[in-house]
Design goal:
The structure holds 2 protein chains of 2 kinds. By secondary structure, chain A is of the alpha/beta class. Helix content of chain A is 43%, strand content 13%. Chain A is built from 19 helices and 13 strands. In chain A, the strands form 4 sheets. In chain A, strands 8-7-13-10-11 form a 5-stranded mixed beta sheet. In chain A, helix 3 (39-49) packs across helix 6. Chain A is globular, with a radius of gyration of 22 Å. Chain B is α+β, with helices and mostly antiparallel strands. Chain B has 2 domains: 2-83, Arc Repressor Mutant, subunit A (Orthogonal Bundle); 97-177, Glutaredoxin (3-Layer(aba) Sandwich). Helix content of chain B is 40%, strand content 11%. Chain B contains 7 helices and 6 strands, in the order ββααααβαβββαα. Chain B has helices at residues 23-33, 45-55, 62-72, 76-83, 105-123, 165-177, 188-191; strands spanning 2-3, 13-14, 97-102, 136-141, 153-155, 158-160. In chain B, helix 2 (45-55) packs across helix 3 (62-72) and helix 3 crosses helix 4 (76-83). In chain B, 40% of the residues are buried. Classes of the chains: A alpha/beta, B alpha+beta. At the A-B interface, helix 7, strand 3, strand 7, strand 13 and helix 15 of A face helix 2, helix 4 and helix 5 of B.
Chain lengths: 450, 193
């Protein structure tokens, strides 16, 4: 079994409730942080730990915190991004459902380090049942004196509130999230100014993902240096991977960074291999926005080194032959998965979720969906394939927020690695009409036999 | 019911019926407003719209949105522009049970497309339609964050996962048989302390 750092206690019966959580050593990190350390020291430990944003971007957390404007007299805010909506990603939901106090504890420590007196958890509205679980955890923590005025007799006071969204993927982007938290449409803001200067209500704000903030707890307990020794290189610590698709054991797994992709997919400890003894065709390793990898490049890099679950290894080869760790939403496709249909499906998602602010994204996602739909439904033309690449190129990097990139990358990467499958669709409109998910002879060469 | 005489959009329903919350609900709204800094009561808009939709007929009529605007001291347009942005807010009448079936990637490759088709066949409605008895409305939604338990759907925001065609039939029949229950304990208003 790999080293469990975050989910170590998640399996304890009743751990959702504070008495059990306390009995198993819960809130020890808050005691240590608030009673024995200064806010600066807490932040230093986070910096030393090398912890990076677990929501997808992988930006060093300590560095992000260091940007916070501490010179003003305006209040500072910590906002927890629990708007988990990236297809393939369901790790934060798991963490909040199983062990909500771990998140609350992380929020207390992080707010203490940042000097925030108010913290909002922005959770997607579809996770309504988690609102009750989190509110209950907050109530319990307040009752035990870990929240509210003068926590543990110190001068530090904190209130945490849960704020539900209402169905909008874009609100996972931090500035759209802040707009939404202010009661507006989730239209991302231009940056700069960054939230660290002008965030919620124009006040200095840090927005971090659920898993990132929860990870502050083990960082404080074991110390930043010890945390940094877990993992590999600049990918320190552990990562929650949410595995789904055509595998035997979908679920949330905590892995030590650096675990080989092959072991993750095939070992009984994790995904347990491909369902029904089929062959692996492709993997999206970090949520639907990151480039898809064909089986050979998912398991090994272009340099024939084993591909590892780490920020660096998954990005090895850039977008020519690599991808990204992203949010850890690990989607596995077997030999029967149709790459054209899948790309159309995901593009439909981005078309639906584009906020409509930037023309390249608003128009481009709709255009790509239309073209992909006709290829998938036997009305495609050979020229459509390069057209898609051109549209994707004209979205990427030309929008206010990364949703444009997120919509462009799946299309560009699917064509890069599975071009023959797209061509087959365009060449054989009659043949593919009746194939919904088809193993098409022309593209078998990229399937890994195992 | 006349449609669309307030805003030039056919989806908006104005019933010209007075709407209001109970005293209890108004207290909840005040407490929600209190979670945000003074003068920032607009922040309470999303949670209050959730409550309004649940309490005032299962969808947001123009009347309900105007009422929410008055509660939060906003211009009605500030509420309309938000209500139209978020997919969980319904702007026209829906059935007693809203089936929101995930059709995004991971659910789709695990049998979600078949389940969706089966629901359509079983209820004899297309996406966006409501059964003639007013019981079920079918919607297709994007990723619900249940990818590991797919295919998934939500019925009035409750998760149903690991769906098969057979199970879906049973779920629909169970819902059909279900007596009126007190849903208030699960309601938005009671989730917030």
């Amino acid at each position: 079994m790999g080293k469990l750092v975050l989910l170590e206690k998640a399996g304890i019966p009743g751990i959702r409730f504070i008495d059990v959580y306390l009995a198993s050593g819960g809130y020890k990190a808050v005691r240590k942080g608030l009673l024995e350390m200064t806010p600066v020291q807490v932040q230093q430990e986070v910096t030393r730990s090398g912890l990076r944003g677990r929501g997808g971007a992988g930006f060093p957390t300590g560095l992000k915190w260091s940007f916070l404007d501490r010179k003003t007299n305006r209040p500072r805010y910590l906002v927890c991004n629990a708007d988990e909506s990236e297809p393939g990603t369901f790790k934060d939901r798991y963490l909040m459902e199983k062990i909500p106090h771990l998140l609350i504890e992380g929020l207390i420590l992080s707010s203490y380090a940042l000097g925030a007196r108010t913290c909002y958890i922005y959770i997607r509205g579809e996770f309504k049942y988690l609102v009750g679980i989190l509110e209950n955890a907050i109530r319990e923590a307040k009752h035990k004196g870990y929240l509210g005025e003068k926590i543990l007799g110190t001068d530090f006071s904190l209130d945490i509130y849960v704020h539900p969204g209402a169905g909008a993927y874009i609100c996972g982007e931090e500035t759209a999230l802040l707009e939404s938290l202010e009661g507006k449409r989730g239209n991302p803001r231009n940056k700069p100014p960054f939230p660290a200067y002008k965030g919620l209500y124009d006040c200095p704000t840090v927005v971090n993902n659920v898993e990132t903030l929860a990870a502050v707890v083990p960082v404080i307990i074991m110390g930043g240096e010890a945390y940094a020794r877990i993992g590999i290189g600049k990918s320190t610590g552990t990562k929650l991977m949410s595995a789904c698709g055509n595998i035997n054991k979908p679920g949330v797994y905590e892995i030590e960074m650096g675990l080989p992709v092959e072991e993750f997919i095939y070992s009984e400890e994790y995904c347990g291999g491909i369902k029904n003894g089929r062959m692996l065709k492709a993997v999206i390793p970090g949520g639907s926005s990151v480039p898809i990898l064909p089986a050979d490049l998912a398991l090994n890099t272009a340099k024939a080194e084993p591909r590892l679950l780490s920020y660096e290894s998954l990005a090895e080869g850039d977008f020519q032959s690599g991808s990204m760790l992203g949010s850890g939403g690990f989607i596995v496709y077997d030999e029967d998965a149709c790459m054209v249909r899948n790309t159309w499906n995901l593009t439909r998602f981005y078309r639906h979720e584009s906020c409509g602010q930037c023309s390249p994204c608003r128009e481009g996602t709709a255009w790509m969906e239309k073209v992909l739909y006709r290829i998938e439904h036997g009305q495609g033309r050979m020229s459509d394939i390069d057209l898609l690449v051109r549209i994707a190129n004209n979205i990427e990097g030309k929008t206010i927020c990364p949703l444009g990139d997120a919509a462009a990358w799946p299309v560009a990467s699917a064509i890069r690695h599975f071009r023959r499958e797209f061509e087959y669709h365009a060449e054989h409109p009659e043949a593919i009409k009746n194939i919904r998910h088809g193993a098409i002879g022309a593209i078998q060469d990229r399937i890994r036999v195992r | 019911m006349d449609k669309g005489n307030i805003i030039n959009h056919h989806l908006y329903v104005k019933e010209n019926k007075p709407v209001s919350f109970s005293e209890d609900m108004l207290a909840k709204v005040r407490s929600l407003i209190g979670r945000y800094p003074a003068g920032k009561q607009k922040s309470a808009l999303l949670p209050v719209l959730h409550i309004a939709q649940e309490e005032l007929g299962g969808y947001l009529s123009v009347d309900s949105m105007d009422y929410v605007a008055s509660l939060l001291g906003l211009n009605p347009i500030e509420v309309y522009e938000v209500a139209t942005f978020y997919s969980m807010f319904y702007l026209e009448k829906v059935g007693k049970y809203v089936l929101e079936v995930c059709h995004t990637g991971p659910c789709a490759i695990c049998g979600g497309e078949e389940v969706l088709q089966h629901i359509k066949d079983y209820l004899q409605i297309e996406t966006g339609e409501t059964t003639p008895d007013g019981l079920f409305t079918l919607k297709e939604v994007e990723c619900l964050g249940a990818c590991g338990n797919g295919p998934a759907m939500q019925v009035n925001t409750e998760f149903y996962e690991h769906l098969t065609s057979k199970q879906v039939e049973k779920i629909l029949e169970d819902l059909r048989q279900k007596q009126e229950e007190d849903r208030s304990s699960k309601g938005w208003a009671n989730l917030f302390s």
